[in-house]
Amino acid sequence: MAQQADTTAMRRAVELAARGLGATSPNPVVGCVITDASGHRVGEGWHQRAGGPHAEVHALREAGVLARGGTAYVTLEPCNHTGRTGPCAQALIEAGISRVVYAVGDPNPQATGGADTLRAAGTEVSQGLLADEAETVNIAWLTSVRRGRPFVRWKYAATLDGRIAAADGTSRWISSAESRADVHRLRAEADAVVVGSGTARADDPHLAVRDVEGAVQPLRVVVDTEASAVKPGARILDDAAPTLIAIAEDAEGPLTTAAGAVTAEVVRLPRAERGLSVPALLDALHARGVRSVLLEGGPTLAGAFIAAGAVDEVVGYLAPVLLGAGPAALADAGISTITDALRLDVTETAHIGSDLRITATLKGA
Predict the structure, then answer these.
(1) Which of 56, 77, 133, 313 is catalytic?
(2) For 134-182, how does the pLDDT look when each residue is reduced to its tens digit (9 = 90+)?
(3) Of the candidates 205, 154, 212, 161, which has an alpha carbon nearest to the alpha carbon of residue 188?
(4) Is 56 assigned a catalytic role?
(5) I need a labelling partner for 72 at 20 to 30 A (CA). Which of 142, 160, 206, 221 fits?
(6) Quick check: 218 and 186 in contact, CB under 8 A?
(7) How much is the average pLDDT of 304-315?
(8) How far apart are CA 260 and CA 283, in angstroms?
């Protein structure tokens, strides 16, 4: 059983790792704490941006000579390869670290092996301390490596009876101001925010992050199959954040005929039975370095993602409101009988303003 001091240090490393959410892709978020030979904390750091020093390097710099003979607590196995930065396993060895405790093994075949390198140099190594917590904070990157596609978090806001708008289409505002602010936190943690053509027409969304200090703006993505929903002057076409519009390979809408009308990148993707191919969209985003997606689209797009098996987490904001009519949060997802229903494991509930926020993952995921 880990000593309390080990647990405390690793929990701090997990907290540090979370500071990098939304800013490190295509790299993971990682935190590191270093204690000296007597167990006193002398250095800490986190991976702050892609291409910048890794968490271990920041912590070693702060610790200086006090790192010699000490312990490094790292949320992810120290890397073993040279990319834009050097291998962290070697940096720990050269600093004289005598013991390394890491939470989660590195599944990236290009970077794994750091633990073996450390052991070969005589460093004591152990794995698994607070693995669940470290996995949770780094779930987007871990999912992208293991599945070869971005992690997808579907967010929606609905009344207590499951409506996302009234019968006349009005929806502002179902959720509280506090919930809407919380959504900006989710956007800040994501690499891309995705909506469909229905949302683009109805809401003219902006999708950029507001009021989150130091936020890196995510890629704004509109799934506009027929190339007809995003019009010149749309808010999503401003310079607040980059924008990508996904259209069908054979689309002949205004985007393809009005030269210069849209100041955004356009990608052509194959059609699916309904709309665009979700796997193709995720492949295109993954190729652009996107490791986490916040799906904010309406019920049709959400249904397409669910049907494609491409939703990893659901975040629902339930408002204490009843409408009785209007569109539901989820449209056809290919589920026709109760035995095929997707069962969820609730991982968190929280009161946000007057609303209840429920976070859940697919059962068994």
Answers:
(1) 56
(2) 999 999 999 999 999 999 999 999 999 999 998 988 888 889 999 999 9
(3) 212
(4) yes
(5) 142
(6) no
(7) 94
(8) 27
